[in-house]
Amino acid sequence: MxxxxxxxxxxxxxxxxxxxxxxxxxxxxxxxxxxxxxTLYSPATRPKLAADILKQSAxxxxxxxxxxxDSIGDGDVAAGEENLVRQxxxxxxxxxxxTNLPLLFIRVREPGQIPDLVRRMGPTTRRLSGFVLPKFxxxxxxxxxxxxxxxxxxxxxxxxxxxxxxxxxxxxLESRTETLQGIxxxxxxxxxxxxxxxxxxxxxxSAYGLRRAPDMTAYDVHIVASVISDVxxxxxxxxxxxxxxxxxxxxxxRLHERMFKPQLRRSPFLGRAxxxxxxxxEHDMDGLLREIELDRANGLQGKTCIHPSHVAPVHALSVxxxxxxSDAADIxxxxxxxxxxxxxxxxxxxxxxxxxxxxxxRTLLRAEAFGVAREGIGFVELLTASLPQA
Length: 390
Description:
The protein is an alpha/beta fold. 45% of the residues lie in helices and 13% in strands. The protein has helices spanning 9-15, 29-35, 49-58, 77-96, 113-121, 138-155, 168-171, 173-189, 201-206, 222-235, 274-282, 285-297, 311-316, 322-331, 353-370, 379-386, and strands at residues 16-18, 38-43, 63-67, 103-107, 130-133, 160-165, 197-199, 245-250, 303-305, 341-343, 350-352, 372-373. Strands 2-3-4-5-6-7-8-9 form an eight-stranded parallel β-barrel, surrounded by four helices. Strands 1-12 form a two-stranded antiparallel sheet. Strands 10-11 form a two-stranded antiparallel ribbon. Helix 5 links the parallel strand 4 and strand 5. It comes from Streptomyces piniterrae. Mg(2+) binds at residue 203.
């Protein structure tokens, strides 16, 4: 697998100074956590789920979650489980024939589903990367993780956990600190199995009867932004104790009536892709693009997606710019080990070696997964190349 691998080699060569690296489901967790990118959710009950997965993989999707929880009705869980067993058999056949699959995860409701599904799926579990654990707290999370360990032992392969942080206890101010500390204890104990932490912002909003409009990002809803800040503060540190925390879902994908002006400036698109700018605005993608940028500014990587049209924007904005790469490489040169300050090669900023080192390390890790754009290539060119006939 490789990001932008669905593009022809000549187009990749024109776009990238350093092309995205290859990875597999067996790559180190540190690599996979960044390479998740836009994680596309799909209900587990879809009758042609295997075909859908293969279709999205061919379009550049690198990770998917097959959901048995909120995306399906309570009465459909058994049918969803049976469907997953059937669809994984089809996926196993496709992979054996040489077809690439994305990283696949199953979102369960209860701990007992994990070993039960692994047992029922049998050898086809080799196409599964792990499980998504809903409404994760210390009390709820430990049984899920113990079930994961049991399933790992039964199938003889590595299975990752992606806890979803979405419980009211985490949102409510009076219980937030204690809940965060409990989550931190739990995921640290099972650190080697926790691939990433996912934020359930829809559930946060639900607790207060809120829903953000397409003109607004999660960071404009202050009660949500405060939780994101605290989660990153405790669980996203760059000192070796932290985890990858992924960005919240963007709910919109069709035209809505606007109250505010579009958030995309014209200048990046002038003379190149004005039609793309218009299409992004018409489909509320300008808000998504802004939220992706704010995700990274606030310490998040990747994003939960509920529509295929969101994948390309997430991946285009995940590519490391030539300027970022130049700064990061300068900061991490061996001769800079003693620290100091230097002017960037682009002569527009100060690079202070010690304070910027953690940023530089994260940037180069992202560059391994998503590549480095050529000088003068921005997200407009990357997005245009990624979208069919954009």
